[in-house]
Design brief:
Blueprint lengths: L4 H10 L17 H14 L4 H16 L6 E3 L4 E13 L7 E11 L4 E5 L1 H10 L13 H12 L2
Antiparallel strand pairs: 1-2, 2-3, 3-4
Helix pairs in contact: 3-4
The protein binds zinc ion (ZN).
Length: about 160
Amino acid sequence: MKENPAEQIIRDRLEPGQLSVEGFLGNDKRPIADIIAADTGVVEAAELTVKQLGEFLEKLHVTADGGWEGRVPMYDGKISVRSDETLGQIPCPFACGTSCHKAVITVKNADGENLLIFTPLAAHLISTHGFFEGKGSPCRIEPKELIKLFHHCTGE
Ligand SMILES: [Zn+2]
């Protein structure tokens, strides 16, 4: 499928070196719309919505921010979250007007094992654009992993 000019602009912004050193696409050559559709399909097959999962990540992010770089337990101690901030903001590659602060949020289980690492921008990209990033992107979140974490935490 050939991408229209608007999609090409977004694709350019997702490439390495534009907004982030590593970019958002990894080695994924599919059109952006196809990447989003495939991941949305996985989420819907689990009877969830990308908005639910994105808002879940936003909640982890906001809670982690409140910890001032300390670890904060959530969901009765099933997980803990911590945000480590770096200076600066990154604009949304979809040019929706949102900018996110740069931070890395780590989610651990009760045994202290890492369950997920994500950025505030990744939470925004999922909740607002349904974009989990391309295959091979270092910040890609596998929908299946996120669904598993969502069930683990919420019990839903
Ligand atoms: Zn956006």
